[in-house]
Design brief:
The complex is a heterodimer.
Chain A (H helix, E strand, L loop, with lengths): L2 E3 L4 E5 L4 E3 L2 E3 L5 E8 L6 E7 L6 E3 L2 E6 L4 E6 L8 E9 L8 E2 L3 E6 L1
Parallel strand pairs in A: 2-12
Antiparallel strand pairs in A: 1-4, 3-9, 5-6, 5-10, 7-8, 8-9, 10-11, 10-12
Chain B lengths: L4 E3 L2 E4 L5 E6 L6 E8 L3 E9 L2 E5 L6 E5 L5 E5 L8 E8 L9 E2 L3 E5 L1
Parallel strand pairs in B: 2-11
Antiparallel strand pairs in B: 1-3, 3-8, 4-5, 4-9, 5-6, 7-8, 9-10, 9-11
The chains are: A mainly beta, B mainly beta.
Chain lengths: 116, 114
């Protein structure tokens, strides 16, 4: 069965610190997709990244970077030089090719507070 | 272009009543998915529609239903409301299934059942 675990429920960092959000997933499919979403207080989920299971290259986008390691079933997210605007709940998610690309299984989320 | 629009934003209903929530996807998007978000259960997939057909359904009772219209707008209905149905209901749209585009979420409808 598919499952996404985000062990960190809440994290607080001081502005400009780096922070890594952990994500561990479980799936039996060989083809799957991993996502990160940000949910600010306004409520809507903001897409950050999608990764398919065949692409293990790490990715960097500005202050954001992602480390995908199939060997440990992890897809961690790092924010460099955090800012107050990064305060939000972050969700890691998984969808499996065999069941449906559009049925996304979300982790419980990590609430990040960046303190000025 | 306009984002995903969900109406209403807030709703208060009484136990036993029914409710209909609406989602207007981004123009051109044909896939609409619905999710329920609660503090206890987190984000859970409800169902997904594509071209007016329900393609996938999550593990929710039959009181939860939905439909999609020819213009891709979608509605979800919850009958015989229970206190536990209080949640933020999120709708997401995307261009097509298995596409390389991401899903865009609306701001949600916050339903309170009293």
């Amino acid at each position: 069965a598919q499952k996404v675990t985000q062990a960190q429920t809440e994290i607080s960092v001081v502005e400009k610190e780096d922070v890594t959000l952990d994500c561990v997933y479980e799936t039996r499919d060989t083809t799957y997709y991993l996502f990160w979403y940000k949910q600010p207080p306004s409520g809507e989920l903001v897409f950050l990244i999608r990764r398919n299971s065949f692409d293990e290259q790490n990715e960097i986008s500005g202050r954001y970077s992602w480390n995908f390691q199939k060997s440990t079933s992890s897809f961690n997210f790092t924010i460099t030089a955090s800012q107050v605007v990064d305060s939000a709940v972050y969700f890691c998610a998984l969808s499996e090719e065999e069941t449906s690309y559009d049925k996304v299984i979300f982790g419980p989320g990590t609430s990040l507070s960046v303190i000025p | 272009k306009a984002g995903v629009t969900q109406t209403p934003r807030y709703l208060i209903k009484t136990r036993g009543q029914q409710v209909t929530l609406s989602c207007s996807p981004i123009s051109g998007h044909r896939s609409v998915s619905w999710y329920q978000q609660t503090p206890g259960q987190g984000l859970q997939f409800l169902f997904e529609y594509f071209s007016e057909t329900q393609r996938n359904k999550g593990n929710f009772p039959g009181r939860f239903s939905g439909r999609q219209f020819s213009n891709s707008r979608s509605e979800m209905n919850v009958s015989t409301l229970e206190l536990g149905d209080s949640a933020l209901y999120l709708c997401a749209s995307s261009e097509a299934r298995r596409s390389n585009t991401e899903a865009f979420f609306g701001q949600g409808t916050r339903l309170t059942v009293v």
